[in-house]
Predict the 3D structure of the following.
Amino acid sequence: MIIKNVELETVCGITSKLPDNQLCEIAFAGKSNVGKSSLINGLVNRKALARTSSQPGKTQTINFYNVNKELYFVDLPGYGYANVSLKVKEQWGKMIERYLHESQVLKAVFLLIDIRHEPSANDVNMYQWILANGYEPIIIATKADKIKRSQLQKHIKMIKTELNVVPGTKVLTFSALTKQGKDEILDLIEEIVEE
Ligand code: GDP
């Protein structure tokens, strides 16, 4: 898939009505700092379209990026900030849940996990939550440049085990630094959109 143009079309806050999009949606979820903005920017060849996480707490919105007037990338709010109140955490949860529940055109959810670390309890919850809403999460192991190539498979296995993934779950790797994995992710998105 070649991305020719992309624009931020809709930003939804906690009380906003979700857009009634006609094009299909591909969503990205993950804890804050996992590299979600860097992945989205990398996929669409832009340096700073999606915000990067220098300001914790700023991402309480669901952002819809129109890609090629063909589909949407949906940037879900990052979870797992240590320094936010329970109330704010609950609001994030509700927002994500409402989106997963209500979207009529959501085709796939990518769940991002830092390749270096064991998934957190929040990651496991998010994985289960996506499943419970009827989607099989596709895992993207981010920051792949941070480990040796010879260690990749071991880390992928660890992520699969800790998340207790359903059989056949796809795990792709990505590095925003080297762009490793970019073409595979875009090819998969194209396949999903054409299904
Ligand atoms: P977000 O909170 O999930 O949107 O995460 P960001 O995209 O803002 O990334 C968080 C931090 O990790 C930033 O300092 C990024 O520069 C860094 N980062 C993101 N992706 C990569 C990657 O693939 N490789 C390396 N080495 N650093 C990354």
The chain has one domain: 6-194. The mean pLDDT is 92. Residues 86-102 form the longest helix (17 residues). Residues 6-194 form a domain with the Rossmann fold fold (CATH 3.40.50.300).
